[in-house]
Amino acid sequence: MSNFRKSIIYILCTVFSCAAIAQNNRALVIGIGDYPIESGWRKINGDKDIEIVCAFLKENGFTQNSIVILKNAEATKANIVEQFKLLATNAKTGDRVYIHFSGHGQQITDTDGDEDDGWDEAWIPYNAQKNFKKGIYEGENHLIDDEICLLLQNIRKKIGTTGELIVVADACHSGDSTRDEEEDDEDIIIRGTLDRFNIPGEFPKKNENEQPLQWIVISACLAYQNNYECKVDGKNYGSLSYSLYSLRNEIGNNPLNVVKNMISGTMKNLVAMPQTIQIETQNNLNTTILFGK
Questions:
Q1: What's the pLDDT tens digit per position in 81-122?
Q2: Distances in Å between the alpha carbon of 265 and those of 90, 188, 259, 269?
Q3: Treating both helix axes as pointing N-terminal to C-terminal, what angle do 49-58 and 239-246 enclose, rounded to 10 degrees?
Q4: What are the pLDDT digits (tens) for 153-204?
Q5: Contact predicate 27/98, CB 8 Å
Q6: Any idea what the Cα angle at residue 231 is, between residues 240 and 245, rounded to 5°?
Q7: Strands (E), 16-140
Q8: Cα 27 to chain center, whole Å?
Q9: What is the model's pLDDT at position 247?
Q10: Dihedral of CA 122/124/127/129: which sign?
Q11: Which segment of 7-21, 31-45, 81-95, 215-229 scores lowest on mean pLDDT?
């Protein structure tokens, strides 16, 4: 075999080998706005975020086929958990995984004792109710942070240290806010509630060290703040979701500290009330790149 042919074969093998380990983009976008009346949750516009979140993702390397959408009645706890598990099943080493939740958030009694303040944070799926009702609804459809953490750990194991795992929560988990939902003001819409989901009983306390994050988490507000929606051209969106959308062409390859400043500046122009985004990761915000290698 000539050296030329050997070189061609080597190049082709290298190309196919690289293609086999190429990074895949996978996304799960959850948007809930039209909660059932009997759930006790106020109507918001989490479902409206889906379109702009998908636009943001497409500007950063995702295709429509790589994005799974759960909207309103589709976004039950069982369906959300199933999609998390499918991500863990299908993901490969080095993949980029993005998970976005737009909906209500609520604090709920910490029944396993791992929270210092006695309260877990929870995403509110479509079939979760606002208040504890013994024998009727006792919090089983709240998606608690402990459960989310375990689901994310399974995804992290599949994508390995070279993969990217990004979680965005355009919801409010705070129980320490100074004001609740403005039910009589259509122009002020808050995602979340001041009311905690209180499960009666005595629960043990654990003395555990907080585990380091193995992913990037971008939250719409700090624990003591409300998460306000914004209105643009007569339509309401999540303030974090819309900020990501408006920065979709420039946000991807910046370090997280720059991303945080970019989003903060945008949100100040969208929301009149105090609201500060939070970005957490095990790595340095100054060096970690969002959507970049």
A1: 999 999 999 999 999 999 999 999 999 998 876 676 678 899
A2: 37, 20, 10, 7
A3: 30
A4: 999 999 999 999 999 999 986 433 223 344 445 568 888 887 899 999 888 7
A5: yes
A6: 40
A7: 25-31, 67-71, 96-102, 105-109, 119-123
A8: 11
A9: 96
A10: positive
A11: 7-21
Cα distance between the two ends of the chain: 38
> CB neighbours of 268 closer than 8 A, spacing ≥ 6?
none
d(CA 22, CA 24): 6
Q: Which of 260, 184, 168, 272 is CA-nearest to residue 230?
A: 272
Q: What is the DSSP string of 126-187?
A: TT--SS-BTTTB-STT-EEHHHHHHHHHHHHHHHTTTSEEEEEEES---S--SS---TT-TT
How far, in Å, CA of 262 to CA of 253, rounded?
Answer: 12
CB contact burial 69-97 (16+ within 10 A = b; e otherwise): bbbbeebbbebbeebbeebbeebeebbbb
What is the Cα–Cα distance from 123 to 101, expressed in whole angstroms? 8
CA-nearest of 76, 201, 178 to 132 is 201
CA 155 – CA 87 distance, rounded (Å): 7
Q: Percentage of the chain with pLDDT > 70?
A: 83
How is residue 2 written in tokens?
């000539």
| Planar angle of CA 105, 78, 136, nearest 5 degrees | 70
Instruction: Tell whether the torsion through CA atoms of 222, 170, 164 and 159 is positive or negative.
Output: positive
pTM of the model: 0.88
- DSSP symbols for 210-269: PPPPSSEEEESS-TTS--BEEEETTEEEEHHHHHHHHTTTTSTTSBHHHHHHHHHHHHHH
